[in-house]
Design brief:
With 258 residues, this protein is of the alpha/beta class. The protein contains eight helices and eleven strands. The longest helix has 16 residues, at 223-238.
């Protein structure tokens, strides 16, 4: 069985972070592995607190796991600290990890900071050269590149700059664009993944999308195939949400994928 690893935060609501990633891996027939970078106190309304896992124990989790099992693809989500980024870069080299997907999580949908201030620069300089695919939304891409993104042309400029930082394939997700839901895939050429914009606020969209990309890479798809199929998966998922709390809607991730 193919395997995928997520290195991310723990979400008690189950809508994002490690829990969402493992659900998506399972839907794609991929065995899920996980390492916790932090614990969060959050619900569908937002993040109220973060407890970072100690440096020593993040390292222990990774070394013990990877000395036994090597994943076919690895996704990083909320890493929280510069130390974790440095550690992951060392681990990628030590265990020759392949198919690295970086979901650069800095801030929650409710506006809560989810990382130390130096994390965006550390991701840009240290982690992106190792990654096969980076999947920022337009706000995260703006932070990483310094380009204010309001249009698809702005997304193109940001995608090119992100590729110059060393990442081979860039997907800038455009769900936060005002007039359309267009994801931009860049691999030296621009590819536009369009869909109808669905109204509402949804918990864990970035985690769900990036974990789908990771699962597809683990299963042997190319980056371009993974981008296209993950977009279709998100289109279906956005039509299958439910409201069980008082905030954002959650994805119903119990149905089978084609």
């Amino acid at each position: 069985m193919k395997k995928a690893l997520t290195i991310a935060g723990f979400d008690p609501s189950g809508g994002a972070g490690i829990q969402a990633d493992l659900k998506v891996f399972h839907l794609f027939g991929i065995y899920g592995l996980s390492v916790a970078s932090s614990l969060t106190a959050q619900n569908t309304k937002g993040v109220e607190g973060i407890l970072p896992v100690s440096r020593e124990f993040v390292k222990k989790q990774l070394d013990v796991l990877l000395s036994d099992i090597i994943p076919d693809a690895t996704k990083t989500g909320m890493l929280y600290s510069e130390y974790n980024i440095e550690l992951i870069c060392r681990v990628i080299r030590k265990y020759a990890l392949q198919n690295i997907v970086v979901d650069p999580v800095f801030i929650s949908s409710s506006g809560r900071r989810l990382a130390e201030r130096g994390v965006p620069e550390a991701i840009r300089k240290r982690l992106l050269p190792f990654c096969a695919v980076v999947t920022p939304n337009i706000y995260e891409a703006s932070v990483l590149t310094g380009i204010a993104i309001e249009t698809i042309k702005d997304m193109e400029k940001a995608a090119v700059r992100l590729s110059e930082y060393g990442c081979r394939n860039v997907i800038v997700t455009g769900g936060h664009l005002k007039k359309a839901a267009v994801d931009l895939f860049y691999d030296g050429e621009f590819h536009y993944l369009r869909s109808r914009k669905i109204k509402g606020e949804f918990h864990g969209t970035g985690c769900t999308f990036s974990s789908a990309v990771t699962a597809l890479l683990a299963g042997g798809k190319t980056a371009s195939e993974a981008a296209m199929l993950a977009k279709k998966f998100m289109d279906r998922s956005l039509k299958k949400t439910f409201g069980t709390g008082r905030g954002m809607r959650l994805f119903d991730l119990k149905y089978d994928t084609p």
